[in-house]
Design a protein that fits this description.
Strand content: over 45%
Strand order of the largest sheet: 1-2-3-4-5-6-7-8-9-10-11
Number of strands: 11
Helix content: under 10%
Number of helices: 2
Number of domains: 1
CATH architecture: Beta Barrel
Radius of gyration: 18 Å
Length: 237
Protein backbone atom coordinates (compact mmCIF):
# COMPACT_ATOMS: atom_id res chain seq x y z
CA UNK A 1 0.00 0.00 0.00
CA UNK A 2 2.85 2.39 0.77
CA UNK A 3 4.30 1.85 -2.71
CA UNK A 4 0.87 2.53 -4.25
CA UNK A 5 0.57 5.81 -2.30
CA UNK A 6 4.02 6.89 -3.48
CA UNK A 7 3.19 6.10 -7.11
CA UNK A 8 -0.10 7.98 -6.83
CA UNK A 9 1.58 11.09 -5.40
CA UNK A 10 4.26 11.06 -8.09
CA UNK A 11 1.61 10.61 -10.79
CA UNK A 12 -0.11 13.76 -9.55
CA UNK A 13 3.07 15.85 -9.68
CA UNK A 14 4.80 14.59 -12.84
CA UNK A 15 2.32 16.14 -15.32
CA UNK A 16 3.05 19.55 -13.77
CA UNK A 17 6.64 19.30 -14.99
CA UNK A 18 5.55 19.27 -18.63
CA UNK A 19 5.37 22.83 -20.02
CA UNK A 20 2.09 23.84 -21.64
CA UNK A 21 2.55 25.45 -25.10
CA UNK A 22 1.21 28.99 -25.43
CA UNK A 23 0.48 30.91 -28.63
CA UNK A 24 2.19 34.17 -27.69
CA UNK A 25 5.36 33.65 -25.74
CA UNK A 26 9.13 34.02 -25.79
CA UNK A 27 11.21 31.01 -24.73
CA UNK A 28 14.74 31.13 -23.37
CA UNK A 29 17.23 28.59 -22.06
CA UNK A 30 19.41 29.21 -19.02
CA UNK A 31 21.98 27.66 -16.71
CA UNK A 32 21.88 28.29 -12.94
CA UNK A 33 25.15 27.51 -11.10
CA UNK A 34 25.10 27.84 -7.31
CA UNK A 35 27.25 27.11 -4.26
CA UNK A 36 25.76 27.09 -0.73
CA UNK A 37 27.73 26.63 2.49
CA UNK A 38 26.04 25.79 5.80
CA UNK A 39 27.85 26.38 9.10
CA UNK A 40 26.21 24.86 12.19
CA UNK A 41 26.91 27.39 14.96
CA UNK A 42 24.45 26.04 17.55
CA UNK A 43 21.84 23.31 17.78
CA UNK A 44 19.17 25.93 17.04
CA UNK A 45 20.78 28.11 14.37
CA UNK A 46 23.30 28.07 11.53
CA UNK A 47 24.96 30.48 9.11
CA UNK A 48 24.39 30.12 5.35
CA UNK A 49 26.55 31.67 2.62
CA UNK A 50 25.20 31.63 -0.93
CA UNK A 51 26.69 32.47 -4.34
CA UNK A 52 24.39 32.00 -7.35
CA UNK A 53 24.59 32.91 -11.05
CA UNK A 54 22.12 33.18 -13.93
CA UNK A 55 23.44 32.51 -17.44
CA UNK A 56 21.66 32.86 -20.79
CA UNK A 57 23.39 31.86 -24.06
CA UNK A 58 26.66 31.42 -22.17
CA UNK A 59 26.66 34.96 -20.74
CA UNK A 60 26.35 35.75 -17.02
CA UNK A 61 23.35 38.12 -16.87
CA UNK A 62 23.18 38.51 -13.10
CA UNK A 63 24.22 36.90 -9.85
CA UNK A 64 23.40 36.99 -6.15
CA UNK A 65 25.64 36.64 -3.13
CA UNK A 66 25.02 37.03 0.56
CA UNK A 67 24.56 35.50 4.02
CA UNK A 68 21.55 34.15 5.91
CA UNK A 69 20.84 33.07 9.47
CA UNK A 70 18.60 30.05 9.96
CA UNK A 71 16.75 29.33 13.20
CA UNK A 72 15.25 25.87 13.74
CA UNK A 73 13.19 24.22 16.47
CA UNK A 74 14.03 20.84 18.01
CA UNK A 75 13.93 17.72 15.77
CA UNK A 76 10.71 15.74 15.48
CA UNK A 77 11.07 11.99 16.00
CA UNK A 78 9.05 10.94 12.93
CA UNK A 79 11.02 13.35 10.73
CA UNK A 80 14.29 11.96 12.12
CA UNK A 81 13.34 8.49 10.86
CA UNK A 82 12.49 9.80 7.38
CA UNK A 83 15.67 11.90 7.11
CA UNK A 84 18.05 9.31 8.56
CA UNK A 85 20.58 9.66 5.69
CA UNK A 86 19.96 13.37 5.08
CA UNK A 87 22.97 15.72 5.05
CA UNK A 88 20.77 18.79 5.61
CA UNK A 89 20.16 18.60 9.36
CA UNK A 90 17.19 21.02 9.42
CA UNK A 91 14.94 18.61 7.50
CA UNK A 92 14.31 16.66 10.68
CA UNK A 93 12.84 19.78 12.31
CA UNK A 94 9.20 20.77 11.72
CA UNK A 95 9.85 24.53 11.41
CA UNK A 96 12.76 26.68 10.17
CA UNK A 97 12.91 30.49 10.05
CA UNK A 98 15.51 32.27 7.89
CA UNK A 99 16.51 35.92 7.52
CA UNK A 100 18.95 36.82 4.79
CA UNK A 101 20.54 39.55 2.69
CA UNK A 102 21.43 39.28 -0.99
CA UNK A 103 23.36 41.61 -3.28
CA UNK A 104 22.39 41.13 -6.95
CA UNK A 105 24.87 42.65 -9.42
CA UNK A 106 23.76 42.55 -13.07
CA UNK A 107 25.24 43.13 -16.52
CA UNK A 108 21.87 44.17 -17.98
CA UNK A 109 20.37 46.41 -15.25
CA UNK A 110 21.16 48.23 -12.00
CA UNK A 111 22.24 46.19 -8.98
CA UNK A 112 19.59 45.15 -6.45
CA UNK A 113 19.73 45.04 -2.65
CA UNK A 114 17.46 42.30 -1.27
CA UNK A 115 16.20 41.46 2.21
CA UNK A 116 14.93 37.86 2.24
CA UNK A 117 12.85 36.43 5.13
CA UNK A 118 11.70 32.83 4.75
CA UNK A 119 9.73 30.18 6.67
CA UNK A 120 9.74 26.42 6.05
CA UNK A 121 7.53 23.63 7.36
CA UNK A 122 8.58 19.97 7.07
CA UNK A 123 5.73 17.46 7.03
CA UNK A 124 6.16 13.65 7.05
CA UNK A 125 4.03 11.74 4.55
CA UNK A 126 3.18 8.03 4.13
CA UNK A 127 5.78 5.99 2.26
CA UNK A 128 8.70 7.78 3.99
CA UNK A 129 8.12 10.85 1.84
CA UNK A 130 8.91 14.38 3.01
CA UNK A 131 6.81 17.41 2.12
CA UNK A 132 8.32 20.89 2.48
CA UNK A 133 6.19 24.05 2.37
CA UNK A 134 8.43 27.11 1.92
CA UNK A 135 7.20 30.71 2.01
CA UNK A 136 9.70 33.40 0.99
CA UNK A 137 9.57 37.15 0.52
CA UNK A 138 12.01 39.04 -1.72
CA UNK A 139 12.10 42.70 -0.64
CA UNK A 140 14.08 44.51 -3.37
CA UNK A 141 15.56 48.01 -3.61
CA UNK A 142 16.89 49.07 -7.04
CA UNK A 143 17.92 52.69 -7.67
CA UNK A 144 15.67 53.79 -4.79
CA UNK A 145 12.64 51.90 -6.13
CA UNK A 146 11.04 49.19 -3.95
CA UNK A 147 9.32 46.03 -5.17
CA UNK A 148 8.43 42.84 -3.39
CA UNK A 149 7.70 39.26 -4.36
CA UNK A 150 6.01 36.50 -2.35
CA UNK A 151 6.97 32.94 -3.31
CA UNK A 152 5.38 29.73 -2.08
CA UNK A 153 7.10 26.45 -2.98
CA UNK A 154 5.86 22.91 -2.29
CA UNK A 155 8.45 20.12 -2.56
CA UNK A 156 7.89 16.37 -2.31
CA UNK A 157 10.93 14.10 -1.96
CA UNK A 158 11.90 10.60 -0.93
CA UNK A 159 15.37 9.36 -0.01
CA UNK A 160 16.21 6.09 -1.83
CA UNK A 161 18.39 3.27 -0.55
CA UNK A 162 20.68 1.76 -3.21
CA UNK A 163 22.99 -0.39 -1.12
CA UNK A 164 25.13 2.18 0.75
CA UNK A 165 24.17 5.07 -1.53
CA UNK A 166 21.15 7.32 -0.82
CA UNK A 167 20.07 9.70 -3.62
CA UNK A 168 17.00 11.87 -3.07
CA UNK A 169 14.77 12.59 -6.11
CA UNK A 170 12.24 15.39 -5.75
CA UNK A 171 9.59 17.40 -7.57
CA UNK A 172 8.44 20.92 -6.72
CA UNK A 173 6.12 23.72 -7.76
CA UNK A 174 6.51 27.39 -6.88
CA UNK A 175 3.99 30.21 -7.37
CA UNK A 176 4.94 33.89 -7.11
CA UNK A 177 3.00 37.10 -6.51
CA UNK A 178 4.89 40.19 -7.74
CA UNK A 179 3.96 43.67 -6.53
CA UNK A 180 5.06 45.37 -9.76
CA UNK A 181 2.38 43.44 -11.68
CA UNK A 182 -0.14 43.20 -8.78
CA UNK A 183 -0.89 39.55 -9.55
CA UNK A 184 0.31 35.95 -9.34
CA UNK A 185 2.61 36.25 -12.32
CA UNK A 186 5.24 33.50 -12.21
CA UNK A 187 5.12 29.72 -11.96
CA UNK A 188 8.15 27.47 -11.51
CA UNK A 189 8.01 23.70 -11.95
CA UNK A 190 11.06 21.69 -10.96
CA UNK A 191 12.34 18.15 -10.93
CA UNK A 192 15.74 17.05 -9.68
CA UNK A 193 17.81 14.80 -7.46
CA UNK A 194 20.06 15.34 -4.44
CA UNK A 195 23.25 13.32 -4.91
CA UNK A 196 25.57 12.87 -1.89
CA UNK A 197 29.24 13.28 -2.85
CA UNK A 198 30.85 12.87 0.57
CA UNK A 199 29.95 13.02 4.27
CA UNK A 200 29.58 16.81 4.07
CA UNK A 201 29.01 17.56 0.37
CA UNK A 202 25.93 17.14 -1.80
CA UNK A 203 25.10 17.96 -5.43
CA UNK A 204 21.61 19.15 -6.35
CA UNK A 205 21.02 18.72 -10.09
CA UNK A 206 17.63 19.88 -11.42
CA UNK A 207 15.53 21.03 -14.37
CA UNK A 208 13.31 24.10 -14.02
CA UNK A 209 10.54 25.47 -16.24
CA UNK A 210 9.43 29.06 -15.56
CA UNK A 211 6.36 30.77 -16.98
CA UNK A 212 6.20 34.53 -16.31
CA UNK A 213 2.91 36.19 -17.28
CA UNK A 214 3.89 39.59 -15.88
CA UNK A 215 5.39 40.62 -19.22
CA UNK A 216 3.95 40.56 -22.73
CA UNK A 217 4.34 38.19 -24.45
CA UNK A 218 4.62 35.54 -21.74
CA UNK A 219 8.26 34.80 -20.97
CA UNK A 220 9.17 31.16 -20.54
CA UNK A 221 12.55 29.87 -19.41
CA UNK A 222 13.80 26.29 -19.53
CA UNK A 223 16.78 26.02 -17.20
CA UNK A 224 19.22 23.43 -15.90
CA UNK A 225 20.68 24.12 -12.48
CA UNK A 226 23.39 22.69 -10.27
CA UNK A 227 23.83 23.46 -6.57
CA UNK A 228 26.85 22.28 -4.62
CA UNK A 229 25.99 22.18 -0.91
CA UNK A 230 28.68 22.11 1.79
CA UNK A 231 27.60 21.22 5.34
CA UNK A 232 30.03 22.12 8.13
CA UNK A 233 29.36 20.57 11.57
CA UNK A 234 30.00 22.54 14.79
CA UNK A 235 33.67 23.21 15.45
CA UNK A 236 35.04 21.23 18.38
CA UNK A 237 38.28 22.76 19.56
Amino acid sequence: MKHLRLQWLLACFVPLLCPVPLRAQSTLTAFLPEVDSYFRLHSNFRLVLQAKGYMEDGDLDHAQVGPSLQFNVRPFEKLKKITLFELDDVKCTPFVMTVGYRYLPSSVQAATQRFQPMAMFHIPLPGRMLLTDRSRADLDWTNGAFNWTYRNRITAERRLHIRSYHPDPYIAGEFSYQSQYSKWSATRLLGGCLLPLSRHTQLDAYYQHVNNTGVRPNRQVNAVGTIVNFYFPPYKG
